[in-house]
Design a protein that fits this description.
This protein is of the alpha+beta class. It has helices spanning 2-17, 39-55, 83-93, 130-133, 283-287; strands spanning 69-70, 94-103, 106-121, 125-129, 138-144, 150-160, 165-170, 182-183, 193-198, 206-219, 224-230, 242-244, 249-261, 273-282, 290-291. The longest helix is centred in the first third of the chain and has 17 residues, at 39-55.
Length: 295
């Protein structure tokens, strides 16, 4: 009997050795406030709604823009908010940007979530990083709000090429009002508690916390690039998303990371990572892109 069981045992081991099948993609579904969601549902919904707008010829490439635009910005806050309240407000005002693009000789129009941005104007004016919209093969963008509505990005109102910032305007009905965030007027000093609302690698509307580590400037041929370094985590897909202080003001905008290695020998693959510096663009710099109407 013992010998008779051996073939059956071997067969069972072979069956278990087969790699598990990947689960099918879930159906596209809009993210509903207060309900859990699968990130794949969200990206499916964003692409499906975006392609409807594309078919209606409402999605177009973004053209060049001037250095400043006219918009009255809200005054900065003075009272501290609870982290839960701050997170809820940031969630409501932070969008996911999706991009239609082509690659190489293949002219098939592809789609991917690009990054994020946040509203500073109730009529659909938002701030993001310029590098998010700067790809030459881009054919246009759409933006999804936290409640699942998807709108075309109509135009860029202002850009700062040195500080890597852009102000975008959505193509939304005139009577639609969006929740907004306030841009800080001054630099947040080191030690300031902060929170980031972002979309790291299509993990949508994720909150991370930390502090301001320092404020610095990179001096280059094109001009000075200002950065607020923070300790809160973010990753690719988070560019253009807000960094908030305890009063809910946007003290910075997610921009880039710099990896530090013990012995950087110039090779592409490094194995001795020591630290990741997280650079964000100060909110007070973003305020310089706006002028009072009539001025």
């Amino acid at each position: 009997m013992r010998h008779a069981l051996i073939p059956l045992l071997a067969l069972a081991l072979l069956v278990r050795a087969e790699p598990p099948k990947s689960p099918p993609d879930p159906p596209a579904r809009a993210p509903l406030a207060g309900q859990v969601f699968d990130d794949r549902e969200i990206i499916g919904h964003l692409e499906a709604e975006g392609r409807k707008l594309l078919a209606a010829k409402r999605v177009n490439p973004i053209k060049a823009a001037p250095r400043r635009c006219a918009l009255t910005l809200a005054e900065t806050g003075r009272e501290k908010s609870t982290l839960a309240s701050l997170a809820a407000n940031a969630e409501a005002a932070t969008v996911v940007l999706g991009e239609f693009f082509t690659e190489g000789k293949n002219r098939e129009l592809k789609f991917a979530s690009a990054a994020g941005g946040f509203f500073v104007g109730a009529r659909g004016t938002l701030v993001t990083s310029l590098h998010v919209i700067g790809e030459k093969d881009s054919r246009g963008f759409v933006a999804m709000t936290r409640d699942g509505r998807v709108f075309p990005v109509r135009e860029a109102l202002a850009v700062d090429e040195v500080e890597d910032l852009a102000v975008l305007q959505l193509d939304a009905p005139d009577d639609m009002v969006f929740p907004t965030l306030r841009l800080a007027a001054t630099a947040a000093p080191a030690g300031t508690p902060i929170a980031v609302m972002s979309h790291p690698d299509e993990h949508f509307w994720m909150l991370t916390t930390g502090i301001v580590a320092r404020n610095t400037v990179w001096r280059g041929e094109r001009g000075d690039e200002h950065y607020t370094c923070i300790t809160a985590d973010f990753a690719k897909g988070s560019s253009g998303c807000p960094v908030l202080d305890e009063s809910g003001d946007v003290v910075a905008i997610v921009n880039n990371t710099v990896s530090l290695y013990y012995d950087d020998n110039g090779r592409k693959k490094q194995l001795d990572l020591q630290m990741v510096i997280k650079n964000t663009t100060p909110g007070w710099i973003a305020r310089t892109l706006f002028a009072e109407p009539g001025r």
